[in-house]
Amino acid sequence: MNEPTTVLPNNSNQVDALPSQFARASEKQQKQMIPELIELGESGWDVLMEFLPTDRGSAVTLVQGMVYQALYAAKTPKTQEFLISNFPTGLVPLVSDRGLDYSDLQQLLAEQDFQQADRLTLQKLCQLAGSEAIQRKWLYFTEIDNIPASDLQTINSLWFLHSQGKFGFSVQRELWLGGGKNWEKLWSKIGWKQGNNWTRYPQEFIWDLSAPTGHLPLSNQLRGVRVIAALFSHPAWSK
User: Any idea where the GUN4-like domain is (predicted)?
Assistant: First the structure.
C-alpha cells in the first residue's frame, strides 16, 4: 500500500501547523517535505530549524542530516546564522582519539565538494595510520588497525550524513556483505568497474549525488583488496 503524500499548507492560516505536521510525518514523508519546506521560505526554514536537535544529546538521524544539508545549501542570512550559532562544527560530533581536526572535511562535505573531500579523507587516514603512511601518501593493510574506531566512525558519519545516506565506508561494507563478500560484484555495483575495465581516476568517477550508492569514498583497489578488506573488518563497525 502506497504511503499518502503529505501536502504542505498553501495559506498563512495553516502555517502554524507545519512543525507538528513535519514531526509526525514518516521518514519517507519528511524526506519529501524537506525541499518543499525550503521553497516555502522563512516559514519553512523555521520548521526545519526547530526540528534539528540543538542539545546534541542523541544520535543524529539521516533525516536530520538532510535537514542540516538543506539549510546549509539555502545560504540565507537566517539559516547561516542559525547553523553557525548552534552547529559551528556541523551536525556530527567531530570525535578523534588522536586530536585530529575534522572541521575541514566537514566543510567540504557540507559544500558537496566530494572530490576534494575524498582526497582529504585519504590524507586523514594516512595521518591516523602513522608517519610512514603520511610519507608515502597511501596505506598498507597492516596499518588499518592503527586507526582508532572513533576517528573512523567520525569520517564515516560525515560522509553518510552529507550524502543522504549514499556514501561512506559503512555503506560500502553493507553492499559487500549483501553480495556475499564478492569483490567483483561490489566493484560493479558501486561503479568502480565497468565490465573488465576499471573506472579511471578522476575523470570517470562521479563526484555528486547522482553516483551509485557506495561510490565514495574511494580506495585504491588497483593495489589489491587488502586495504579495503581491513577497513571493512575494522572494530569500528561492531561498536
Answer: 96-235
Q: For 32-35, which contacts have Cβ atoms below 8 Å and span 24 or more sequence positions? A: 32/5, 32/6, 33/6, 33/8, 34/63, 34/66, 34/67, 34/70, 35/70
Work out the mean pLDDT of the chain and round it to a whole number.
Answer: 92
- Residue 128 neighbours by CB under 8 Å, 6+ apart: 98, 100, 146, 147, 148, 151, 152
Which of 139, 98, 168 lies closest to 230, judged by CA?
Answer: 139
Tell me which architecture the domain covering 103-238 has in CATH.
Orthogonal Bundle (1.10)
Whether the model clears a pTM of 0.90, i.e. scores above it, the answer is yes
Which letter does DSSP use for residue 92 in this model? S
Q: Is 198 helix (H, G, I), strand (E, B) or coil?
A: strand
Domain ranges of the chain: 12-86, 103-238
**Does 45 have pLDDT greater than 90?**
yes
Of 28 and 15, more confident: 28
Query: How high is the pLDDT of residue 14?
Result: 62
Alpha helices in 25-162 (DSSP H): 27-40, 42-51, 62-74, 77-86, 103-110, 114-129, 131-136, 149-161
